[in-house]
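Customer escalation, tier 2.

The customer says the design service returned an amino acid string that "doesn't look like it belongs to this structure." They asked us to rerun it and document both sides in this ticket. The original structure tokens are below, unchanged.
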């Protein structure tokens, strides 16, 4: 992208950000790239509204990597898709000389980005990542943003048929590992779109456990 500032949000100007941008733009579908950039932009704006100041460079990496686990070559077979993206981001930051603390912080932000409420009680980076996801995917706190901010973000990173397309991406991203959706919002997706899927029932797990009553 050639635009350095979108809706008043400055895209960090660093080699790390350039590499992250190139990696995601060239190895994921356009849907994921534009969504991830919007997550950074909306996350930054929502963090500002909440009086939070996440590190822009780390927030950018968290936003750009947060959905890598939905698509090859990053998605795995045996863990939640959020962990795939988190693992990739941690490795990316580690190889670029970032501290273990910063790398783990970004890992946590991505790992928790589909968890309701909890991220808002944590580090500003974790809260900011979730805020961006909640705004772009769920429309949460849109009323905290101006019409001009929203329009400028969407002009830079369009979202045609986004609801339909992101739900299809979610389904494709973890239909082959349905057990990984236990206890998560991801089970809702498969219940709607994967024929024959039956969510694991938490109560039945407790009642059927090996513990004698």
């Amino acid at each position: 992208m050639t635009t350095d500032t979108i809706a008043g949000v400055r895209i960090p100007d660093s080699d790390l950000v350039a590499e992250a941008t190139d990696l995601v733009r060239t190895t994921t579908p356009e849907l994921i790239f534009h969504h991830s950039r919007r997550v950074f932009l909306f996350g930054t704006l929502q963090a500002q509204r909440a009086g939070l100041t996440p590190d822009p460079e780390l927030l950018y990496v968290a936003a750009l990597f947060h959905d890598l686990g939905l698509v090859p070559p990053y998605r795995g077979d045996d863990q939640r898709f959020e962990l795939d993206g988190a693992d990739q981001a941690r490795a990316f930051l580690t190889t670029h000389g970032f501290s273990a603390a910063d790398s783990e912080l970004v890992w946590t932000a991505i790992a928790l980005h589909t968890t309701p409420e909890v991220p808002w009680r944590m580090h500003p980076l974790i809260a900011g990542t979730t805020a961006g996801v909640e705004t772009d995917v769920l429309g949460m706190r849109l009323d905290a943003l101006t019409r001009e901010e929203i329009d400028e973000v969407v002009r830079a990173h369009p979202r045609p048929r986004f609801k339909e397309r992101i739900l299809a991406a979610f389904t494709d991203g973890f239909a082959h590992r349905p057990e990984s959706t236990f206890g998560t919002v991801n089970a809702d997706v498969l219940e709607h779109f994967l024929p024959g899927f039956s969510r694991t029932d938490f109560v039945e797990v407790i009642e059927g456990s090996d513990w004698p009553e």
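Tier 2 assessment: The sequence is consistent with the input. Residues 21 and 44 are 17 Å apart (CA to CA). Residues 5-158 form a domain with the Hypothetical protein af1432 fold (CATH 1.10.3210.10). Sent an explanation to the customer and offered a walkthrough call.
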